[in-house]
Design goal:
Layout lengths: L5 H11 L4 H4 L3 H11 L8 H15 L27 H10 L4 H8 L19 H8 L3 E2 L11 E2 L3 H23 L3 H26 L3 H9 L8 H19 L3 E2 L4 H4 L1 H10 L4 H15 L8 E4 L11 H13 L5 E5 L5 H14 L5 E4 H10 L4 H4 L3 E3 L3 E3 L4 E2 L5 E4 L2 H6 L26 H33 L3 H5 L4 H4 L10 E9 L1 H17 L5 H9 L5 H9 L9 H25 L2 E5 L5 H7 L29 H9 L13 E4 L9 H14 L3 E5 L3 H9 L8 E3 L4 E3 L5 H9 L2 E2 L2
Parallel strand pairs: 2-3, 4-5, 5-6, 9-11, 10-11, 11-12, 13-14, 13-17
Antiparallel strand pairs: 1-10, 6-14, 7-8, 15-16
Helix pairs in contact: 1-14, 3-4, 4-9, 7-20, 8-9, 8-11, 9-10, 11-14, 14-15, 15-16, 16-29, 20-26, 23-26, 28-29, 30-31
């Protein structure tokens, strides 16, 4: 078991306390990005060259900062919230001074004559119907309205190319394709990035030489300008490439992919040559993990998985990365790929880390369903086998795709609201955003209600697609990405930008929300209205429109009908049928529009926002209350144990949801102890065979969480899985804390 070195203990402390970051480098991006753009003649350049000039200027000019004891150098500062600037000129002037900028430079920055000019801005087309506008108003089909891009900071670029070729080799590739395709602003922009990439390492080498760190100087003279020759150079080159990617469009969910696969050839070479030990490798990985640390971190990396020939790709680095994650004991976004044939020792080790770190990491994705789901939407098998995650749970083919992650959001729970009001909103009765499916009092059977529900889902999905498509030209023109283009297959070869559909695989992930509530609602109507005649349809409509004034009847709808998550086929099959129908609707929209839409039953934190604009529903949920997280059961309703929950999740059509069916499962920490963890291993393997897609575990008991609410000072480092990401509990809103506490804590 790896034990932190004194070096790593010190660096970890600095990272957690944000030392070196705020004081020395936070404003570098803001100043040098502007410098690069303003000093160009805007009449001669397009949006892509302006963007490239800004990023290249940061690469060339940002101050190289090397902290005591560092082995991996460079800082992950970005634009926006991570620039360190406040918007108050007086405060920001002091920040610039702390960053080493002179008064003349600060005066230049604030001079009104020195403004970035030349950008072309295309507004969204928005050829939407009145109903579609109303749907957007109710948050049933919304996108990043008002933003220039709907793809911001969600990527895994082709890091292997930087490690193999360096920026000098990439420059040769750019020049070769410029000859083939003809010169253009696109290739001019990529040259700017490549040439600046060759300078970046030299700047750090010079600083390292100045302070007597010859080891760093030697590494940085080689990378990222040239190909990596050793494990340390590979880690350093990867880190440089990552921070350049974040300088282009912020940190957030720009992720690293399958690091155990990317770095393994360099590790194996150095181990076999006798120049590297596992302790050395762990220390370098620790330094990388520490560099990535943030309070809110969705810079995802992944270990494990299977190769196209069916063999396991678990290697020594897969284990070392788990060891390092446990030893550092802070939130480091790490996922594990597994399947029903995964070696039990590896899966057990990953689950041990879940139980020991107790921060919801790592989390798990099942190759048995993820690979078929990707091939079903046109990704070739070999590339599908290379999938990884970005951000929370979003799926990407690293270095080959633009996934447009969290591109669109569809609140499918609104389908029951609209079906029971003939297309009108019960939340805002003045609106009729839904399809006109008839008076629900005339629905003589449950099948008639289901047909109305499906009509509403089809209507919502079409609106979602139309809204998404209306933003595509806007994004293509306004927000080119030269760094991502350089390191994404298809772009350089064709001379087409990443955001102009240049990637080899260009697809759009649509978040399907409210599925558990929708299934619970329909099961309740079937049971209590159609089967048992416990309540008339007329009475139910009155209750929903008036927010359940009859508390006894509301509790009947909560407790006297089956609920998703308890291995009850009747309600699970409703969830599966409607999810599959929504997936089929997305496939139809892909055919109609020419854009590839991928189903992603995932809510992130929007289960709160969508709940706020959803009327009372037949599952007993009141108006405005939160809806279920992704495909996890509505909090507190899964009462039949962990095995039952896994079986319910596995009944969903996971091979039709390439964006993953995300679920967070709350488990009593005792199940991850030495004498019980093997039961969890067997459960995971069995669930994988049944069709489980993604699962994330929280291993904190409810009593601890309640105490953390009352006494946050005693639980400063308590972290939980929130919504596809882990976060310190005391940094969450009270609403989110209550939501997590209310989730069922499975003890068997």
């Amino acid at each position: 078991m790896f034990v932190l070195s004194e070096r790593c203990k010190a660096l970890r402390g600095d990272a957690v306390n944000e030392k070196n970051f705020a004081a020395k480098i936070c404003a570098q991006h803001a100043f040098w990005s502007k410098w690069g753009k303003v000093t160009l003649d805007p009449s001669k350049y397009s949006n892509i060259t302006l963007n490239a000039a800004g990023t290249a200027s940061v690469m060339r000019n940002a101050a190289p900062v090397i902290a005591d004891g560092e082995l991996i150098v460079g800082y992950n500062f970005g634009d926006g919230a991570h620039s360190g600037l406040t918007g108050d000129r007086g405060r920001d002037t002091e920040i610039f001074r702390r960053n080493g900028f002179t008064d003349d430079q600060i005066a230049w920055y604030y001079n009104p004559d020195n403004q970035v000019k030349g950008y072309t801005r295309l507004p969204p087309t928005e050829n939407l119907t009145e109903k579609e506008h109303q749907l957007r108003a109710e948050l049933t089909a919304i996108n990043s309205a008002g933003n220039s891009s709907i793809t911001a900071n969600h990527s895994v670029i082709g890091y292997e190319k930087v490690l193999r070729l360096g920026f000098s080799g990439l420059l040769e590739e750019v020049n070769r394709y410029a000859v083939i395709n003809g010169e253009s602003d696109y290739y001019t922009a990529l040259r700017m990035i490549c040439e600046a990439g060759c300078v970046l390492g030299e700047n750090y080498a010079a600083e390292a030489q100045l302070i007597g760190r010859n080891d760093i100087a030697e590494v940085c003279r080689q990378v990222p300008a040239y190909g990596a020759r050793s494990f340390r150079e590979a880690v350093q080159s990867l880190w440089f490439a990552h921070i350049v990617n974040t300088w282009e469009d912020d940190i957030n969910a720009n992720s690293l992919g399958r690091l155990d696969q990317i770095l393994y050839p360099y590790y194996r070479h150095d181990i076999d040559s006798g120049v590297l030990t596992d302790e050395d490798a762990c220390e370098l990985l620790c330094c990388l993990w520490i560099k990535l640390y943030r309070d809110y971190d969705v810079q995802q990396s992944c270990v494990g998985g299977r190769a196209p020939d069916g063999s396991s790709q678990v290697n020594d680095l897969s284990y070392l990365m788990l060891d390092v994650t446990e030893a550092l004991n802070f939130v480091r976004c790490l996922s594990v790929r597994f399947d029903s044939s995964t070696d039990k020792a590896f899966l057990r080790r990953a689950l041990e880390v879940v139980g020991r770190v107790r921060k919801g990491i790592p989390f798990f994705f099942n190759d048995d369903v993820m690979i078929p789901a990707l091939t079903a939407v046109g990704i070739p098998y070999e590339d599908a086998c290379g999938y990884t995650q970005i951000g929370c749970v979003e799926t990407v083919i690293p270095g080959k795709s633009n996934p447009h992650a969290v591109n669109s959001r569809s609140n499918l729970l609104k389908a029951v609201e609209y079906a029971l009001a003939d297309g009108y909103s019960m939340f805002d009765p003045k609106l009729r955003p839904g399809a006109e499916t008839g008076n629900p009092l005339t629905f003589e059977s449950f099948d008639m209600l289901m047909e109305a529900i499906k009509a509403q889902i089809k209507h919502i999905i079409r609106a979602t697609a139309n809204v998404a498509v209306s933003f595509m030209p806007n994004s293509e023109v306004n927000d080119p990405k030269p760094v991502k283009s350089l390191l994404t297959e298809g772009c350089t070869e064709r001379g087409i930008d990443f955001n102009a559909r240049g990637a080899l695989y260009d697809y759009y992930q649509v978040m399907l929300m409210g599925i558990p509530n929708l299934a619970d609602s329909l099961a309740a109507v079937k049971t209590l209205v159609y089967d048992k005649r416990h309540c008339s349809m007329e009475e139910l409509l009155y209750q929903l429109k008036n927010n359940w004034p009859d508390e006894k009847l509301r509790l009947d709808f909560v407790s006297r009908a089956p609920k998703f998550g308890n291995d009850i086929e009747e309600v699970d099959n409703i969830a599966a049928e409607l999810t599959e129908y929504a997936c089929d609707c997305l496939a139809d929209e892909s055919q109609r529009t020419g854009y590839s839409f991928h189903a992603q039953p995932f809510t992130f934190l929007w289960m709160i926002d969508h709940g706020r604009v959803t009327a009372a529903t037949p599952d007993g949920r009141r108006r405005g209350e939160i809806i279920a997280y992704s495909v996890s059961p509505m909090q507190g309703r899964d009462r039949e144990g962990l095995t039952a929950l896994m079986k319910s999740l596995s009944r969903l059509p996971t091979k039709k949801t390439p964006g993953t069916t995300s679920a967070i499962v709350e488990v009593d920490p005792k199940l991850f102890e030495e004498d019980t963890i093997d039961r969890i291993v067997e459960l995971m393997l069995g669930a994988a065979a049944l069709g489980l897609s993604n699962v994330q575990f929280n291993t904190v008991c409810a009593d601890t969480l309640r105490d953390a609410q009352l006494h946050p000072e005693n639980h400063r480092n308590l972290a939980v899985r929130v919504s596809g990401f882990s976060q310190k509990f005391n940094l969450l809103s009270r609403e989110l804390q209550d939501h997590i506490i209310a989730r069922t804590k499975h003890a068997d």
